[in-house]
Amino acid sequence: MYTYSKEALPNGLRIIFIQMPHIHSVVMAAYIGLGSRYEDEKKLGISHFLEHMLFRGTKRFNNSFELLQAIDNIGGDSDAYTSPEHSAVIIQAHNKHTEKGLHILSDILLGGNFKPDDIEIERRIIQEEMKQFVDVKGDYVGIDDMSYSLMWKDGSTETPLFGDEKTIAALTAEDLYTHYKKFFVPENIVICVSGNFDKELVSRQIKDLFGNLQGNFSARKPPLKTTQTGPKYLFKKSPSQTASFKLCHKAYPYKHKNVIIMLLLADVLGGGISSRLSLNVREKLGLVYEIACYPTMFSDVGSIDIYTSTKKENFEKTAQAVMDEVHKLFREGITEQELNRTEERVFSQTQLVMDSPLAMANWFGIEELLITPETPDTPEKQAQKIHDIKLDDVHKVISEIFVPEKRNFIVVGAFSWLGKKHTITLLK
Q1: Treating both helix axes as pointing N-terminal to C-terminal, what angle do 391-401 and 315-332 enclose, rounded to 10 degrees?
Q2: Which of 191, 299, 318, 388 is the most buried (most CB within 10 A)?
Q3: What is the mean pLDDT of residues 215-231?
Q4: What is the pLDDT of residues 410-424, one digit of tens each?
């Protein structure tokens, strides 16, 4: 079991404590309200660039080598990522190194050093990172960014959310420092410590490390475009032997009352090896190697996404098979037996979150940052809600989500003109 508690420092920084005394490790994570949703087109990618720069020179370490060696010296792991509306920095180590881990986390977050040589090195690294989303012609083919832009943004759907060569090349030390000072302020940061640790000692150390951090948060996320009157689609030709596609239906954001039903429906369609899509598109028809359905959620919007990839000649058949399953779900719903079976799967998966200090840190840290609930929605509360789901409620949610006016389809790769035409017809 675990114990949850929360503390707020006088400067506004929030601390979440998830005590799990039965394990050996501790996760020390910072969640920051920072991402592409706060960026204008000319500076797309600056939040991702800033995330990279955090691991360059800090107050105690002259360069990234010293910092990364300090993490290795405690047998720890580090990670960081940037999503559209939040970023995270994570240190995981044995609980005997909690004090050192927290000190390293503060070094990363509070360094704020943007040396010209470091910027140029990191710029090259990011440009290399970007190449994995570019085809042999040099065209951008990041399907996740494309689906996000198609559903929620105005303007080009082929602009990477983490910027392109032009925007990354134009970013300066002053740009990065200004962005850093704007977002790395106490009220925009949540520190979550999860695992086996002494709460009193950790609380005291975080106060010592972060208590003097100052600044007010004034940035606001521009609203996303949610209005849609019919299916939207994007077909991107790319030299390849395969076609990858995502079928996305607009659904619910974090903490919507129907999110738990959305999770259940994603599992029915493509959550497990016995799910409808896996059985019918892979096992019976042999059209794909893997196919998945999963929820994508933000603070104010969300979707249920189906993703797969298949060879060029099977693209139309695969799209037809996927749409057949969606149409069947819309027409017939699910059975009581299917509801019970899927409830148990989703219940078990939710319970398993409580076995992982990292999963628990993500659960409570992101919820606190994006939602700030008066009372947190714990994994066990979510698990219990699953058993309260009624079949009529499931069918109501199906009728709300799986309709043409919430449908978005993105294809990247090889396909024929006729396959494109027939697929567009399927979407309607």
Answers
A1: 130
A2: 191
A3: 90
A4: 999 999 999 999 999
